[in-house]
């Protein structure tokens, strides 16, 4: 039995009700948080225009009150979930496992009328497969992580939902490895909205990979090693892939986001928050310049004049400026109004960011940043952050996560319905609500 046999057997045999209670509870928050990101993203005008073109079918476009074909629901919901940069992530995977998995199994579970345990087992199996592949790989520097290993995670989740055995799971993973896409990091840096489709394509292609494997299609003997060892990735470490499999759960080491932007901004924003708590912040008009020092990935986000809301979410100068002007780094600080705000634009031009190699070496356990603000009177304001808030080492409280869920979902639904969906999602994970009752709640049309 090689590593891929063992990996496939793990995914095929995973049972949600046999997981530790703490893992099951945390999976409930991941499910709720990802669902909220999808609902909120579905309110964006580009997404709504696209959704209106889809044919009818049995699977829900969450937050839109529409039904379409399952494979298209996987695509559209997966795209919606990344629009606002509020979906959870995993620092070891260096990406966002849940949004690459949930839309595919939401669609498939509705199509197949799956039971709760199969659905939740599939969610965890897909998360672990995708996240571990991300951790074991070193994607080429020019690639965006969305749309890569997440495709295999989605396929694993669909195969688990369908009850595939270990051999069929292996074949599904091998098929899926050839269905990842070529992604460009420049899309996120330049604000190319096509970047949001990458996760949608992972869900669509993962769904298709499971379908194809069930029809007799085959892949390479070891597609994971082939793809991630030589094609999209510089290296593939099977030791990291298998380390702690079934005992050390990647989903328990995830992070949640309250800053409405790329995770690479969060160290700087956490440093600003800490500085404000300690000694306050200068008024934007009193600032002479701002210097940020951080790790390599954050230093790439150096655009001082982002062209749209997506580019703004991948800009440290903009994130700092909008946080200082608006007093918040939430959703409202990354809208078109914020991007067009002349005060924010002027302040962003005063922000510089550079890499500190010593900070880069602290990855992945920390994502550090130091911000220095120099005001017109000559005073220096300095804030620092190491572990980012939202990580398992510095988690948000349940109350903070609930507030985030309600803020996001109220972009589409009335407050009372949002509370009902959150309660039902946790109850689903506790075995107290049926899949059909939960799906019925998700079919709610947006408030007009």
TrEMBL record:
<comment type="similarity">
    <text>Belongs to the PrpD family.</text>
</comment>
<dbReference type="InterPro" id="IPR005656">
    <property type="entry name" value="MmgE_PrpD"/>
</dbReference>
<protein>
    <submittedName>
        <fullName>MmgE/PrpD family protein</fullName>
    </submittedName>
</protein>
<feature type="domain" description="MmgE/PrpD C-terminal">
    <location>
        <begin position="259"/>
        <end position="422"/>
    </location>
</feature>
<dbReference type="InterPro" id="IPR036148">
    <property type="entry name" value="MmgE/PrpD_sf"/>
</dbReference>
<dbReference type="InterPro" id="IPR042183">
    <property type="entry name" value="MmgE/PrpD_sf_1"/>
</dbReference>
<dbReference type="InterPro" id="IPR045337">
    <property type="entry name" value="MmgE_PrpD_C"/>
</dbReference>
<feature type="domain" description="MmgE/PrpD N-terminal">
    <location>
        <begin position="6"/>
        <end position="223"/>
    </location>
</feature>
<dbReference type="InterPro" id="IPR042188">
    <property type="entry name" value="MmgE/PrpD_sf_2"/>
</dbReference>
<dbReference type="Pfam" id="PF03972">
    <property type="entry name" value="MmgE_PrpD_N"/>
</dbReference>
<dbReference type="Pfam" id="PF19305">
    <property type="entry name" value="MmgE_PrpD_C"/>
</dbReference>
<dbReference type="GO" id="GO:0016829">
    <property type="term" value="F:lyase activity"/>
</dbReference>
<dbReference type="InterPro" id="IPR045336">
    <property type="entry name" value="MmgE_PrpD_N"/>
</dbReference>
